[in-house]
Amino acid sequence: MSGTEVLQQVTGLIESDPHSAPALTLYALANTLEFPRAGYLFKLDKLKDLDTGQRRLAYELIELMIDGRVGSDEWTRAKTQMDELVRQG
Question: How many CB atoms lie within 10 A of CB 57?
Answer without folding.
Answer: 22
